[in-house]
Amino acid sequence: MSTFTRKLKAAVPAMLLCASLSGVSTMSHADAINPNAPISVVEKWDKTFAESSKVDHRKVTFQNRYGITLVGDLYLPKERGDRKLAAIAVSGPFGAVKEQSSGLYAQTLAENGFVTLAFDPSYTGESGGYPRNVASPDINTEDFSAAVDFLGLQKEVDRARIGLLGICGWGGMALNAAAMDTRVKAVATSVMYDMSRAMGHGVGDGKDRYSTADRRAVLQYLNEQRWKDAQSGTIAHAGHDIYVDDKGKVSTSERILPETLPANPNPVLKEFFDYYRMPRGFHARSVNSTGAWTATTPLSFMNMPLLSYANEIAIPTLIVTGENAHSRYFAEDAFKAIGSKEKELVIVPGANHVDLYDNVAGKIPFTKFEQFFETNLE
Predict the structure, then answer these.
(1) Which residue from 154, 38, 35, 137 is spatially nearest to 89, judged by alpha carbons?
(2) How far is the C-alpha of 336 from the C-alpha of 316, rounded, in Å?
(3) pLDDT tens digit string along 102-134?
(4) CB neighbours (10 Å) of residue 138?
(5) What is the C-alpha to C-alpha distance for residues 103 and 68, in angstroms, rounded to an integer?
(6) 8 A C-beta contact, residue 34 and residue 10
(7) What is the mean pLDDT of each run of 10 residues along the chain (378 residues)?
(8) Strand residue runs (E) in the chain
(9) How far apart are CA 123 and CA 129, in angstroms?
């Protein structure tokens, strides 16, 4: 055995060693040595929004309790003095990266006096985790708590004044974390999705799409994909919104968004395409901009409802959605389920779902978010 092989065998599990040496795995050499390490930590400004002169910005890394190293952007007000400040962890949308919406929200809130952390969830963006492009109701909820860990250790932060903000699919994760993590003092969401409901019951027109038979057909489809992955030794990728026709036939797309927009597209598809696939919001590390999740990602979401304990959320909660957002029913139903006596539902007039990803339409109620966190993280 060579010196190199002895060192490698000591550094990685035997399974990873065999896979990497046999050529079965598609991991790079760096990934094989530490699959939980960051993919990159890009220092240059590569966001989809302009850099603010009112904040200090630095790249940071931290670990969740599964040992995955997350990469984030920490934003601090320039005029902060020596006092300890309230802090907010921000993530989302589902399939986005911190260089997109979450970074914009974080930077804007930092301009108004908060320490903010926009981070890439496990397995996505610059954060570690193999295989790539996996989502998990458990691990991604933990990612928010790991962000709380990190913020609470910063000298600029008052650890008794930490909040969460989840956008789109990370709205449900933020609420799930708020139901469990007693260190969180306030939680807000913007155009939230409950991803366990979305994948487990289908996103419909104001209501769930799947019948019981449809749901069973989706589970059979996904578990058949598990056989294919196990037999091939590779991991297939596909869209997470799975279609069941009136004959029970199941299908999905190879990508979350198509390379080009079809003629007469569904209006919701066009919303997403006009953000993620166009210069307005495109980012090469975004799952939504460039590819798809692992094909079996929906399985855990189908069996683990995120908002099971929403009635135990006792902290101040702000739910923001758009009047014309296709996701509005997720927000309204979550608002009803939340147990806090200090909760507010804000419906932004004329806004669709993607209008609240960036401020091209001028509809993100940043003042409302600022006031909410100022009041409840005082």
Answers:
(1) 154
(2) 14
(3) 999 999 999 999 999 999 999 999 999 999 999
(4) 13
(5) 21
(6) no
(7) 40 36 40 84 97 98 98 96 96 98 98 98 98 98 98 98 99 98 98 98 96 98 98 97 96 96 96 98 98 98 97 98 98 98 98 97 98 97
(8) 55-63, 69-77, 85-91, 115-119, 157-167, 184-190, 237-238, 243-244, 250-251, 293-294, 317-322, 343-348
(9) 4
Task: Write the DSSP assignment of 103-147 as a string of letters.
Answer: HHHHHHHHHTT-EEEEEPPTTSTTS--SSSS---HHHHHHHHHHH
Q: Residues 130, 106, 304, CA angle at the centre, nearest 5°? A: 45
Backbone phi, psi, residue 237, to 5°: -120, 145
Question: Can you tell me the distance from the alpha carbon of 327 to that of 188, in angstroms, rounded to the nearest whole number?
Answer: 16
Say which DSSP state 13 is in: -
Place of tokens 């610059």: 126
Residues 6 or more apart in contact with residue 321 via CB below 8 angstroms: 190, 191, 192, 327, 328, 330, 331, 332, 345, 346, 347, 348, 356
343-348 sheet: strands from edge to edge = 55-63, 69-77, 115-119, 85-91, 157-167, 184-190, 317-322, 343-348
CA torsion angle 281 110 353 238 (round to 10): 50
**Short-list 317, 371, 370, CA closest to 345:** 317
Question: What does the alpha-carbon distance between residue 1 and residue 105 come to, in Å, rounded to a whole number?
Answer: 52
- pTM metric for this prediction: 0.91
Rounded to whole angstroms, how far apart are CA atoms 35 and 69?
10
- Amino acid letter, residue 127: S
